[in-house]
Design goal:
Layout (H helix, E strand, L loop, with lengths): L2 E3 L5 E2 L2 E5 H10 L7 E5 L4 E10 L3 E11 L5 E6 L6 H12 L3 E6 L10 H18 L6 E2 L3 E2 H8 L5 E6 L19 E6 L7 H9 L3 E3 L8 H21 L1
Helix pairs in contact: 2-3, 2-6
């Protein structure tokens, strides 16, 4: 069943409403009619089975039939350099699909400077919302304002219940060997470097703060590939532990 995002404030008691672009999409593109049932979610973990009462290209109103809650308790935060071109949009979409909680664009010595306009950030947020709609996720991956690498490293030290890892091409410790103990953590922070790699002084800073350097294999990966591989390994380890 189709799964559409509705802002939390538009869901009240047993009713919901959709307006703007989303209303146009549901009514004109998807061609839903009165009495049709749809699934909606509020981005906070709540999902609702609902029935449309009235619909046009400007507004949709309906009733809530039932509700459920689904949101991962394990929080994965990705601090990543920005790939060139439109590859960052692909990274956003795929990270949202696999279950990353937050992305923070991070400026390093060799990275493309991340300095987003309001319009670009809104576009990225729309991509994240669309990914949640497509994959059936009830929450929305948050996209934070960019940080410099030193500030990002300092931020992850605030909560010692998170595992902190940084993939580095000169390391030989394997990420999988660190994942057996992830049950003691409530989340993970992953740092992904630029296409030229982290500078040695950046790696030394991270290591001095207790951030673990690991390898993702012998091959040099693109930013978006490394982000997906590292995030996927950490998240899959959580699913396996929850099944044990």
């Amino acid at each position: 069943m189709s799964h559409f995002y509705v802002k939390p404030e538009a869901i009240k008691e047993k009713t919901f409403s959709i307006s703007g672009e989303q209303a146009h999409y549901v009514s004109t593109v998807r061609r839903f009619k009165p009495n049709d049932e749809i699934m909606i979610f509020d981005g906070l973990g709540n999902s609702y089975k609902a029935k449309i009462n009235s619909i046009n290209k400007n507004k949709i109103v309906g009733n809530i039939l039932s509700s459920s809650y689904k949101k991962s308790e394990f929080i994965l935060k990705l601090y990543t350099s920005i790939p060139k071109g439109d590859r960052f949009e692909w990274l956003i979409e795929k990270c949202a699909e696999i279950g990353v909680s937050e992305i923070t664009p991070t400026n390093t010595k060799r990275s493309v400077n991340a300095n987003f306009s309001k319009n670009k950030l809104e576009r990225y947020e729309k991509i994240s919302i669309a990914a949640s709609s497509q994959c059936g996720r009830n929450d929305i991956m948050k996209i934070n304002d960019p940080l410099d690498f030193r500030t990002a490293c300092a931020n992850v030290l605030i909560n010692n219940k998170y595992m902190n890892v940084l993939p580095w091409e000169s390391e030989n410790k394997i990420l999988l060997n660190h994942l057996s103990s992830t049950s003691s953590f409530v989340g993970a922070n992953i740092f992904i470097g630029p296409e030229g790699g982290f500078e040695d002084e950046e790696v030394e800073l991270a290591k001095s703060l207790g951030i673990q350097t690991i390898t993702l294999g012998n091959n040099i990966l693109r930013i978006e590939t490394a982000a997906i591989v590292a995030s996927g390994l950490v998240l899959s380890s959580q699913h396996l532990e929850s099944e044990c």
